[in-house]
Here is the input.
Amino acid sequence: MADDFDTSGRRLTTSKGIDTEELTGRTFPYQFDLSLVEDIDLNEATPGQDINWLEDIHLMQEGGMNAVFDRYTNAFLKIHFDIPQGREDEFARKVLIKHLQEGNSYGIWLKHKHAKFAQPELGSWLAASQTVGENWKPAQLEGWQAPLH
Here is the structure.
């Protein structure tokens, strides 16, 4: 996508949308192959067996392509395979669950460094998830010193 510039050469925009592929520079097999998510049992995979949170997950469009919104990353996860008609939200939910269970959400990756309290790395999507955030320390820029008062 091309950037727009004003008359002085300053960049006006850098991107019109954000998606997981832009953030991570990666795609994942389940974005391309329906068979890798088809057998996911949404009831079984739902945190705390509370399926209500899935009601907010819908198939959307990002850049003219099917996508599901990953709120932990605040980005779209594109879906490259053809979705059977009438099952759009179901497959969006299955792709998102697979993404979260495999720990591929950029938001999950950031937990290792930025989680301020002990929590399951993969949330409640996997019971055996490791714990992160037990020894959080604030980030410190190299060479930075607090100002003298």
